[in-house]
Amino acid sequence: MPAFPTAAEDALADSQLRHNLAGATGTIRAKRAEVVGELDDWDGLRAAGAAIKAHTLSHLDTYLERFETAVTEAGGTVHWARDAAEANRIVTDLVRATGEREVVKVKSMATQEIELNEALAAAGIDAWETDLAELIVQLGHDAPSHILVPAIHRNRAEIREIFRREMGAAGAPAPEDLTDDPVRLAEAARQHLREKFLRAKVAVSGANFAVADSGTLVVLESEGNGRMCLTLPETLISVVGIEKLVPTWQDMEVFLQSLPRSSTGERMNPYTSTWTGVAAGDGPQEFHVVLLDNGRTDALADEVGRQALRCIRCSACLNVCPVYERTGGHAYGSVYPGPIGAVLTPQLRGTASEIDKSLPYASSLCGACYDVCPVAIDIPSLLVHLRTRVVDEQRGPRSWPVAAALAAASWVLGDARRLAAAQRVASWGRRLLWRRGRIGRLPAPLSRWTDARDAPAPAAESFRSWWTRTREEKS
Which H or E element spans position 31? Predict the structure, then answer.
């Protein structure tokens, strides 16, 4: 992926993409505002969510150990993964141990982050996405562009063509008379997925939350595909970021109100699935949790940056972001697009690549993302913090002109006589550079600045000179 400015320029040239994004984000934004406005205590709910997540992150080691103990006592097995490679190896080995060669999946950002589908494919294992939007992305050989609605960049006509072209090669084909009516599209997906649900022996999921006290995992979804994946297979493997923990069941009361309102604009999500270990004759009889680090510990070590780990993946910040609405998610080069991706991805992956260096600048700093965040992540401040980090990491031989300019400025500003002399030189230079109330083209390397914007001409007389002249006239 190129750096964000280049990728964004390409996305801006796609008028259909901009039309799709504007319509979808505008609809979700309006629904969220309506249901949030119904609550008198939304600010208190928001503060409570932020406090719970901040407290958990401050004591994450304690809650992780408590969670592992609870899962083990309930009959599950906990695996620890330092990075994507280790997590993929663990999941692949667990699937191979069952003797199966396919899995069904619940929508999961963590498994997309580690590119689990690709790792399973390399091992000869088919992974089938069962979320409708994820299915569209998978069949379209595409990449997700939104946290909540991965296929937000596609319209109904495009989805119909994807289904007609690709479904037959992956399972039950689409009907010959398929139209772009949403009901017909959903029915085609339902028929296509049903045989996979009934056949699959292994499922892979993520989790929205993990309750430390009980070892319970929680998934919120709108279609029911998650419920099918979590109950029908014999083996369930859940890949969960270590930041997804909450201490107690009582804490869930806050997030079960704030997450649906912030994500889908609903007062309550249609399906809330919870599971704790295994139970004889009920649901999967083998349960594994893979606790994923993959850069989260590094983010946790940053006292400012760690607040990004409070994110509950609601996508509210994407839906209000003027940058995301015009460029879409692919331009961010990460499974986490939009404002939260701009602050989370560089912390998880580092800022070695050009795309990751550019992400903190993928924002106008308008602050709308902070206003809607249900856990009060101050994304604008994080963006500035990460911009500083990028600049600091890039200091070196190539930055000597900047260092020299700053040293010269420090020398001039450090003495009143030198500053007065510099002001006199600026006044003389004004006569040479001033053109119709503005400065024309400055010599290189300053020409790169004046080629892109007008610079106001220095005042004909400095304040220092005016002060001296008027005092002399009075005396």
Answer: helix 15-36
